[in-house]
Amino acid sequence: MAALFRWLQDRSAGVLLHPTSLPGSTGIGTIGREARYFVDFLVETGMKIWQVCPLGPTGFGDSPYQCFSAFAGNPYLIDLETLLEEGLLKQGDLADLRRLPPERVDYGAQWILRWPVLKKAFRNFLSDAPQPDKSEFAAFKKARKEWLEPYTRFIALKKKFDGRSWQNWPQELKSYADAKKLVAKSELAYEMETQAWCQFEFFRQWLSLKQYANSRGIQIFGDIPIFVAMDCADVWTHPKLFDMDVNLNPRFIAGVPPDYFAADGQLWGNPLYDWKRHRATNYAWWLARLRASFELYDIVRIDHFRGFDEYCKIPANAANAREYEWAPGPGFDFFESIKAGFPEAKLVAEDLGMITDSVRELVKATGVPGMNVLQFGFEGASQYLPHNGIPNSVLYPGTHDNDTAWGWFNKQGESVQDFFRRYLRVPGYAVPWDMIRSGYAAPSCLFVVTMQDLLSLGSECRMNTPGTAVGNWKWRLTREQLDDLGSESAAYLQELAKLYER
Q1: Which residue is catalytic, options 79, 231, 379, 401?
Q2: CB 346 within 8 A of CB 293
Q3: Catalytic pick from 79, 303, 309, 453?
Q4: Strands 325-328 and 310-315
Q5: Would residue 401 show up in a list of annotated catalytic residues for this protein?
Q6: Is the pTM here over 0.90, yes or no?
Q7: Is 480 marked active-site?
Q8: Is 201 annotated in the active site?
Q9: For residue range 449-491, what is the model confidence (pLDDT) as tens digits?
């Protein structure tokens, strides 16, 4: 039987860099001028792919994999310099944000300082924006009403209840259907309108950036987590699509058993899907989610692909992920529905971790390219070494969940370090670049490297440590680092791309 999807045919290379890590003047990377400058860097180096983490609005822990919505964008990514140029802000409005450190994100300061600035920009939009812009805002709200109205109501109620999870709201407001009847929109109207405008501005800026990237030959490689956060508008709006009891409490939660990343496993806490209900609707919610994702991205990686074959059920009151059971996911039927709705879908399967034969069979049957991580290969998982790679795959030295190449190498014992040196025939003085050169030469059609490894940075610049709730997602690139990398390595990266036909 022919595979459903066979889109990865051409060889290319790219960089994994979440937009929050971009340079910028207001304490966090955004999707304005500096993002375009980064696109230009990719072109200069012969790259064709920019991979990002999920772009949704983040909550506690600041993880882009735990968002308040599977459809909305992160207002922190709105470029304030663009709003300044449009006359919606003045220089003085940005003074406090400009004092924040350029090398890391202070999310607490962003929460305190950024929202008043966005709200001021919205007030100025209402009073001063030209009519075509206001008409465009009205059209945006109408086009995205199905998810935008519940989302903005959800955020407005969260603010009303001091940020508490919807599970801790008054009983009569614990579902969208009830809240829509009981809380008059007029009470929440201004906050809802503010949030809607933030989404309008995010989408306007991001789609403009994507168009710029595409015009320069760069494809955007996006990411969506298989599960949504418990405290999100989607669960609040559609509780029957999730495995919840009559009191809207989860019966089980998501996670993974003990593995390479965590001895106690990972207790993610996400609600699990009621796959029977999804199947009964022909996966309508999922297809809407993918439709929204394909508007934002050219390629979509689905995190934790194993969950479509079988997923880990952990009791909702568990202290860790050592107590679990496996339950069947939707399987091949789900991907047939995707194929019917999106015949040309460019999907990538995050198929790392404890992978069974049935997962491998599902990946093969769908034709969706899986992932290989060089760090795992050198540690003994030989299927991830370059010589075992296949063209229909995406290869990384390490992902956002791994240590940097130097950080990883320095933590290994002599046997792993010796194997690394012998396998690559190198002295081990330039580990990140040894991996990069190996990745370019490998059979995998797509090779992606983190910006940290291009810069040869250590563990202190690691993006995320799975299983830890705080201290992640803070690293940022500076313009000076990007300029130095371009002047020192652009020609070499172009040469690698030519040599290895990427």
Answers
A1: 401
A2: no
A3: 303
A4: antiparallel
A5: yes
A6: yes
A7: no
A8: no
A9: 999 999 999 999 999 998 787 889 999 999 999 999 999 999 9
